[in-house]
Amino acid sequence: MMGDNRDQSYDSRYWGYVDMSQIKGEALIIYWSWDSNNNWPRFGRIGKLVK
What residue spans define the domains of the chain? Predict the structure, then answer.
C-alpha cells in the first residue's frame, strides 16, 4: 500500500486503515522520499532497500 501525505489526498485519513488480512506483501524499496523541512527530495534514500 502506498500513502500520500498531502492534505488534499485520499489516503487512510479519508478511507480508514487497511485491515492486516488485506495486505499481501511487504515494502522492499523506498520509491520516493521527501524532506518537508527543506522542501527537497532525499535523493540518498530513493531506491534503497527498506530495513
Answer: 27-51
